[in-house]
Design brief:
Layout (H helix, E strand, L loop, with lengths): L1 H28 L27 H21 L20 H4 L2 H17 L23 H8 L3 H8 L4 H9 L5 H13 L5 H21 L4 H19 L4 H10 L11 H4 L2 H4 L2 H18 L12 H24 L1 H4 L11 H13 L2
Length: about 375
């Protein structure tokens, strides 16, 4: 049981590290001085001159279809979510809180499958050098063992492997302090095409927000270009939620906390109109179209051509529980933006309610 308790705590540790990485990366992202070799107006997979920002009937219908599928799947997972009974459940049952509902054997299975699912989505932490007293990289879900060989590679070798679409090399490159900003942005775009929703997506959200801030400070006004970057950032967050990942949203919330420094007066909650916010879903579909076009050249199936495993929904629910437990105030302060997803991806189901209380109890 001591081992099981360690695994339970590691779940909370993982989210804490997510916030740790997001927080310190966000400080770097708020530097509004363009880095050498990076133009604040350069185009990318996400932002091209032909990007249609406003919704068309087709893109609006697609967005509704995506939401419908998501809610159907997530409702199936939560049908029997409720107070824990004395009888333990099997992995294939409709469990909610793994540590409370599952037998010990099935709990270990859930932890293993969770780590594999997160690795598939790009979660693999390099050593953050937090000091000898903090040795957490052998914990489940951090997947440090998969990138450990890449940490020792030279930057040139990493770039060579990244050019061959090596996902672990790309993931390591994004986290390396000695990698140039433009190299990280390029790696993030490639990772997005390969199915990443963690470090790659997080990097692109930060990049879009940095571009918005640069545009604003250059012109001393909120122009359409500034809004375009802000809308792109929110669309990337929504794309992550569609793919059952809250890492981009956590990154965004870390930047818009009113009691912290981050975006400051660049908060989309205050700068974007309701009409601007209504464009987010259309931009999500443009992003997915661009991703699919790039995947086609790599002989990969469309990004939505995927059946999510059982653990994907369970992990997403855990993430939502932790989100509500840790960010309630920030969610309230950004209610206009959050309302884009509160009835769909951020729906507080009975299971999410349980997981919220579970997280709060662990962190008391």
């Amino acid at each position: 049981m001591e081992i099981k308790r360690s695994l339970i705590i590691s779940t909370v540790v993982l989210v804490g590290i997510y916030c740790f990485v997001s927080y310190f990366d966000s400080i770097e992202a708020t530097d509004t001085t363009p880095h050498e070799g990076t133009s604040p107006n350069s185009t990318s997979l996400l932002e091209n001159k032909g990007e249609a920002v406003r919704a068309t009937p087709n893109t609006a219908d697609t967005a509704k279809h995506d939401t419908s599928l998501f809610m159907s799947h997530n409702s199936d997972v939560n049908v029997q979510a409720g107070p824990t009974s004395h009888k333990k459940m099997h992995y294939d049952d409709e469990w909610c809180v793994a540590a409370e509902d599952l037998s010990e054997q099935d709990f270990y299975r859930a932890q293993q499958e969770r780590g594999e699912w997160l690795l598939e989505r790009g979660v693999a932490f390099i050593d953050l050098d937090l000091g000898e007293e903090v040795r957490i990289f052998d914990k489940p879900g951090l997947n440090h063992e998969h990138v450990r060989p890449y940490e020792e590679a030279s930057l040139d070798e990493l770039k060579r492997l990244a050019n061959q679409n090596d996902k672990l090399a790309l993931t390591t490159l994004i986290q390396r302090k000695d990698a140039e900003i433009e190299v990280k942005s390029d790696a993030a775009s490639v990772l997005l095409v390969l199915g990443d929703t963690s470090f790659g997506l997080q990097t692109l959200v930060l990049d879009a927000l940095m571009r918005a801030r640069f545009e604003y400070e250059k012109n001393q006004e909120v122009n359409q270009e500034t809004k375009r970057h802000l809308i792109t950032a929110l669309a990337l967050v929504e794309y992550g939620l569609q793919r059952l990942d809250t890492m981009a949203l956590n990154t965004y919330l870390n930047l818009v906390r009113e009691d912290d420094f981050g975006l400051g007066n660049m908060n989309p909650e205050h700068l974007l109109t309701d009409e601007d916010l209504n464009q987010v879903s259309a931009v999500v579909n443009n992003i997915k179209s661009n991703i699919d076009a790039s995947r086609l050249t790599k002989k990969l199936p469309p990004i939505d051509y995927e059946n999510y495993p059982r653990i994907a929904y369970a992990n997403f629910n855990e993430s939502l529980g932790q989100l509500y437990a840790r960010n309630a105030k920030t969610l309230r302060q950004n209610s206009r933006v959050v309302s884009l997803w509160s009835d769909t991806y951020l729906q507080k189901t009975p299971c999410v309610e349980r997981l919220t209380l579970f997280t709060k109890a662990l962190t008391l």
